[in-house]
Model the fold of this input.
Amino acid sequence: MSEEQKRPDPVWMTSAMLKAYTHPLRRQMLHLFRQREYLRAADIAEALDVAANSASFHLRVLADAGLIEEAPERARDRRDRVWVARRQSLSVGGPENPVADEVLGGVMINAVAEEHSEMLRRVLAWTPEYISGRTTETHAALSQRAVRLTGAEFDALMERIEDVMSEAVEAHDPADPDSRPWQIDLLAADDQI
Done:
């Protein structure tokens, strides 16, 4: 893979991003953006059963935080506001880039953990159908593997996994009728925590 094809460095979340993401309705909205290419306030209001003015307010918060952006090319007319999620890899913080607001960072991590737990519950509820042969359609995967690596080797592995996922997204044909949204959570921990 050439340097220009490599995925960009992650965006370190600002306090505005963290604050926007930690609100439950805005997380639901971001999840909806993962399922659909673009959305209007009316689409969100209908899908999430909220008032359109509430959806508009939260869309502005997400846009001000840099998590979504307007897509005027999708608008039907000058008054039509259409939004798309920004395609970026977000990171909360780390030793080189400490989180701007530790409390918000903790709330963000807890929110992501809740989403991960909910996805795991869905996978576990579906798994008996698959392993018993009652369905042959793949809806999830649960894979576990223990590996022995240095910290640098682990970081390199995670970067390669991110690159593979980015390549798959870039190669995807959005017009394919068999495509559907997938949430991919990778969980890794060493034996020291």
The chain has six helices and four strands. Residues 1-5 have pLDDT under 50 and may be disordered. The longest helix spans residues 102-131. The two ends are 34 Å apart (CA to CA).
